[in-house]
Structures are given as C-alpha cells and as structure tokens.
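Late entry, written up from scratch paper. The run itself happened at the end of the previous shift, but nothing got recorded in the book at the time, so transcribing now.
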Amino acid sequence: MAVTDEAIEKIKGMIVSGALRPGDRLPRESELAAGLGLSRNSLREAVRALSLLRILDVRQGDGTYVTSLDPQLLLEALSFVVDFHRDDTVLEFLAVRRILEPAATAMAAARIGERELNVLTAKLEALGAQPSIEELVACDLEFHRDIVRASGNSVLCSLLDGLSGAATRARIWRRLTQRDAVSRTLHEHRAILAALRDRDADAARSWATVHIASVEQWLRSSL
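Output as recorded:
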C-alpha cells in the first residue's frame, strides 16, 4: 500500500506542477513507470485509484488521460462517501449544509434570472399541497440545487450536491413523521423563493437557515 501511495503522490505531483494538464494523455506505462522510478504494478494500482477519484480516465485501447478536473467531477466521490454515513452523524452533515447553503442562497439572490425563478415557481406549484415523500424529496433536491447553481460558484454547488444528495435526503425524510413537516417545508420553500424574487440576499439567507434548522430540529427529535 505504501508503494501505491508513493505512486499516487508522484502522479499527483505531475498534475499539480502542470507537467500533466487536463485532457493530457499519460505516457506509456513502461515509460511513465521508468521515469517515476516505479514498478509497473504500483503504477497500475495508482492509476486505478486515481480513476476512481475521477482524476484519471482510463480508455480501453486508447490510453489513460487526465480528466477535465472539473470540481463537479472530482467531488462526485464525496456524494458516494456521504451515502455511507451513519444515522448518528446525519446531524453533523446537516450542520455543514446549514453553514454553506444559506451563503449560496444569498449569492443567488443577486444572480438568479427571471426564467430560473419562473421554473422554480412552476415546480413548487406542480407539487401541490400534499405531495408524497418521494415527490417532496425529488422537488427539494432540485429546488435547492437550482438555487445553489444560480450562485455561480461551481465548487460550492458540487460540495452541497455531495453533502446532501437524493439518498441522504430520502433517509432524512423517512424519519420526519411530524404532521406539519411537509406543509412547513413547502412554506419555507415559498419564502425562500419570494426573497429571491425581491433580490433580498439577507432574507434569502435567513429563510434558507430557518429551513435547514427546521429539518435539524425535526430530525433531532426523532433520533
């Protein structure tokens, strides 16, 4: 494992230094192994690990390439890891979301377009007053993802997407048995949307905070 770690660090060093750039093809295995002072086996293990992290793209019959290194691509692994969280740590993930998402929502207030606002409104209206948990989870995911995307910060968007994807939201909502949970969530969504329409960053941040804090409160009482 230590030899593989060394191989990973050497390839990482090539990428960080700019010797390998996004989209570049890696040298042939024998050439790269010799150049880095590695065995071909340790190099293969390193390439396999970095491909799982979306840093390298192994194309059968073509070679191995550095990916685009786009934040959304690199942070896909975060979502995979978060899905394995234990129920007793879910509140910690929500706490991180409560720190980041209100800031993203406030940023979106200055940037979100009229068409995007109309799409959000239509999605909320289509949901109705008594949606199923599955419908609410899907809408909640899209609603917040669209708003965070409107912040214009791709790293923030990818982080939040990884921290609270569909699987995580579904696990949370299965625990929320309070009768007013759905109606309060819809009310808070509408309040966030109204603040965005008013271009009121402070109100948008406040309502986003209230919304996530409400989920935390409901969940804490069910644990």
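Strands lie at 56-59, 63-66.
(Scratch paper discarded after transcription.)
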